[in-house]
Specification:
Helix content is 23%, strand content 33%. The protein is built from 14 helices and 37 strands. Strands 20, 21, 22, 23, 24, 30, 32, 34, 35, 36 and 37 form an eleven-stranded mixed sheet that branches. The longest helix is centred in the N-terminal third of the chain and has 14 residues. The chain starts with a strand and ends with a helix.
C-alpha cells in the first residue's frame, strides 16, 4: 500500500482568468498584505509583469512563480497569462498547482479564455476558488455572473464535488475580498483564509524517492540553466547527485550546484527542499520542459507535459532586402535558428521545423499574436529577419481537409452589429447565438475558421469605431469551409531604390493609404502603401519636381503630406498577402514583395494567368 501524507506547511495555487480580469493586480495586493514589503516602501503596479513587452501592453505573457506567507503557511502563487495565444503557459503552470483561483470580471462575466483555463483545471481535478472581481464597476452584476459561472461549470461536465466551489467577491485594485456583497472589509484576509482552508496541501508518498517534473526553465549567468518545478516525492539536498531523464528516456547524471526556493518574488538559497514545494535546481548541462529529475538509485520518469497542438504556422527567413545588415547586430541564419530553437525549449506551445533551404524556417504556435510577441522580442534583441503571412495548419482525415474553427465572441454597439455580421459571413462565419440586453450593446457568438480572423481585428475595430470587443477560443476542427477573398485592396510598390520625396508622395496620396514619410529609404519591391483598387501598382516615390525658370517663390515648400499612422508589427503581419513579407529590424518595420524585381513579378503573373 502507498503511504501517502501531505505537507500542511505549503499550498500551491495558480491564478487563472481571461485577459484583463485583474490577476496580476490582485497578486500585487497579496504581496502587500502578506508583509512581503516593508511599510512605506514604494512599489510599482503589476510587479509580476517583469518583461518590457508586458509592461507596455498591460498583459501577462509568461507564467511566473512567487510566494507569500500567511499564518505560518507558505502559499506558492503561479500568475498565468490570460490571452488565448499563451494558453500553453497556462497548461504548463497547472502541473505545479494543487488548486486555482478563477478570477471573473463582475461585468463581463466568463469569457472564452475563462472557459479554456477552467476546462484544463477541472480535467486535472484541481480545487477551484471563484473570485468575482471588480464589483465596484458601475455596470457590475455579480449575482448574474455567479449564475453564469455555475452554468459554465455544468457545461464543462463538472461533478457535484467540483460544483460545490467556494466563491468570494473582490475589488482587486483596492486589495479587498469579502464573503458577501454587504460585508464591509478593507483587506484580503478572507481570500488568504479560504486558500488555506479550501486548497488541499500537496500530497506525496513517503516511501518514494525524489521526483520532480520540470515545468519551466530559467537561465543565470553564474549558474547556467535552471530547472523549475514542483517536487512530487522525496527531498533533495545541496550537492546531491541526481539524474535528468529526457524525452528519449536517457538518464543524464548531474550534481545539484545550487538549490533555491521562492520567497516573495525573489529566490532564496536552501540547503534542503521538501516534497510539495516549488523549487529551482541548477547543475544540468541540458534540460527541457517535461524532463524528470530523480535519484540515481531509483530513476522513475513522470508523464511528460502535453499541450494542445499549434494551429498557426509562419515562415521565418533571413533579411534579404537591399537594406539588410544596416540596422541589426544579428543577421546570420544560424543565429536565428539557435534563437528559435531556444524559444521552443522555454515555450512548450511553440514548434520549430527546418526546411530544405538553410535560410528559411517554419515556426508553429497558437496564434498570430503569440508569433508577433516572439518576433518583437527578437527584434529588441538585435535580430534582423523577414517573416511571411501566418497560415493555418490543416489536418487530413479520410480524404477530407479539416481546418481549425474558432468560437468568436463579439460585444459591440447595436448599430454596428449589421456590418460586423456581414463581414464575418463573407469570411465563412456563422452566427450561433445573439444576446441583446436592451442597453444598446449586443453580444454575438460565431463559429468561424481560424484563417478568417487573420487580419480581421483591425477591420473590426474600424467598423465598430474602436468600441467593439472580440475574443476567440479554439473549438475544434471541421471540414474546410471554402475560399474567400483575403484582402480587397492591392499594394503600392516602389519601382526603384532611393529616398522618398515629399513631392512624389503628395501626388501618390490619391492612389491609397501610404505607410512612409518623406526622407525614408526605399528600394525596388518595397511596399510603401495600400492601393485603393484590388491590383498592385508600381510607383516612383523618389520623383522630384522638374526645375523651370517660371516658378513662384516658396511654392515647393508649401507641399504638406498627410500624417501617416506608424505601421506596427501586428498591423504589418495582418496586412500582407501570401506573396509579401515583413522585414523586421531593430528600428524599422518594412513590407516588401517576395520577388523584388517588378519585371520578374510581371513574368510570374503572366505564367500564372497562362496556366489558368
Amino acid at each position: 500500500m502507498k503511504k501517502e501524507t501531505s505537507n500542511q506547511k505549503i499550498r500551491n495555487i495558480a491564478i487563472i482568468a481571461h485577459v484583463d480580469h485583474g490577476k496580476t493586480t490582485l497578486v500585487d495586493h497579496m504581496f502587500r498584505q502578506s508583509g512581503i514589503f516593508r511599510p512605506g516602501l514604494e512599489v510599482d503596479e503589476r510587479i509580476m509583469d517583469t518583461m518590457d513587452l508586458e509592461k507596455e501592453r498591460g498583459i501577462t505573457i509568461a507564467a511566473k512563480n512567487c510566494s507569500v506567507q500567511w499564518k505560518g503557511v507558505k502559499i506558492n502563487i503561479i500568475d498565468t497569462p490570460g490571452h488565448a495565444d499563451f494558453s500553453g503557459e497556462v497548461e504548463r503552470a497547472l502541473t505545479m498547482a494543487d488548486g486555482a483561483i478563477l478570477l471573473v470580471d463582475a461585468s463581463e462575466g466568463p469569457l472564452p479564455q475563462t472557459r479554456f483555463v477552467l476546462k484544463k483545471t477541472l480535467e486535472k481535478r484541481l480545487k477551484v476558488i471563484v473570485v468575482i472581481n471588480k464589483i465596484d464597476r458601475k455596470d457590475a452584476r455579480p449575482d448574474e455572473i455567479l449564475d453564469e459561472i455555475y452554468d459554465l461549470f455544468i457545461d464543462l461536465d463538472a461533478d457535484d464535488e467540483q460544483l460545490n466551489f467556494p466563491y468570494l467577491y473582490a475589488v482587486g485594485r483596492e486589495g479587498i475580498a469579502k464573503k458577501n456583497l454587504t460585508e464591509e472589509t478593507d483587506n484580503l484576509n478572507f481570500l488568504f483564509n479560504t486558500i488555506i482552508d479550501e486548497i488541499p496541501p500537496p500530497r506525496f508518498n513517503i516511501e518514494e524517492p525524489f521526483q520532480m517534473l520540470v515545468s519551466d526553465l530559467g537561465y543565470s549567468d553564474y549558474l547556467g540553466k535552471l530547472a523549475i518545478g514542483r517536487i512530487l516525492n522525496g527531498n533533495a539536498e545541496f550537492k546531491e547527485t541526481m539524474v535528468c531523464i529526457n524525452d528519449k528516456n536517457e538518464q543524464i547524471p548531474f550534481k545539484i550546484s545550487e538549490l533555491q526556493i521562492y520567497e516573495g518574488m525573489k529566490l532564496k538559497e536552501a540547503e534542503t527542499v521538501e516534497s510539495g514545494d516549488i523549487v529551482v535546481l541548477s547543475g544540468m548541462a541540458d534540460v527541457k520542459i517535461g524532463d524528470t529529475i530523480c535519484t540515481q538509485e531509483f530513476p522513475k520518469p513522470i508523464n511528460r507535459i502535453t499541450v494542445d497542438e499549434p494551429t498557426i504556422s509562419m515562415e521565418f527567413t533571413i533579411n534579404t532586402s537591399p537594406l539588410n545588415g544596416k540596422d541589426g547586430k544579428i543577421i546570420q541564419s544560424g543565429k536565428i535558428r539557435e534563437r528559435l530553437i531556444k524559444e521552443t525549449l522555454q515555450n512548450v506551445a511553440v514548434r520549430f521545423e527546418p526546411t530544405e533551404d538553410r535560410d528559411r524556417f517554419i515556426v508553429k504556435g497558437r496564434g498570430e499574436f503569440q508569433m508577433a510577441i516572439l518576433i518583437e522580442t527578437m527584434r529588441r534583441e538585435g535580430f534582423e529577419l523577414s517573416v511571411g503571412r501566418p497560415k493555418v495548419i490543416y489536418k487530413h482525415e479520410n480524404g477530407n481537409t479539416m481546418e481549425p474553427i474558432e468560437k468568436l465572441y463579439v460585444d459591440c454597439a447595436e448599430d454596428f452589429l449589421g456590418v460586423v455580421t456581414e463581414k464575418l459571413s463573407l469570411r465563412k462565419g456563422r452566427m450561433t447565438n445573439l444576446v441583446n440586453n436592451g442597453k444598446g450593446r449586443v453580444r454575438g457568438e460565431f463559429s468561424i475558421p481560424s484563417r478568417s480572423l487573420i487580419g480581421y481585428r483591425d477591420e473590426f475595430l474600424t467598423d465598430t469605431r474602436g468600441t467593439g470587443i472580440m475574443n476567440t477560443i479554439l473549438s475544434g476542427y471541421e471540414q474546410f469551409r471554402g475560399e474567400f477573398p483575403i484582402r480587397s485592396t492591392g499594394s503600392i510598390v516602389s519601382d526603384r531604390q532611393g529616398k522618398s520625396v515629399a513631392y512624389a508622395l503628395f501626388h501618390l496620396e490619391p492612389r491609397g493609404r501610404l505607410f512612409i514619410v518623406p526622407g525614408e529609404p526605399v528600394y525596388e519591391g518595397m511596399i510603401i502603401g495600400e492601393h485603393n483598387k484590388s491590383g498592385d501598382i508600381n510607383v516612383n516615390p523618389c520623383k522630384e519636381k522638374k526645375l523651370t525658370n517660371m516658378r513662384a517663390s516658396g511654392k515647393d515648400e508649401s507641399i504638406a503630406c498627410s500624417p501617416v499612422q506608424p505601421i506596427t508589427l501586428e498591423r504589418a503581419i495582418n496586412f500582407i498577402k501570401d506573396d509579401e513579407m515583413v522585414e523586421v529590424v531593430p528600428n524599422s518595420i518594412r513590407l516588401h514583395k517576395k520577388t523584388f524585381s517588378s519585371q520578374k513579378r510581371h513574368l510570374q503573373r503572366s505564367l500564372q494567368n497562362k496556366n489558368k
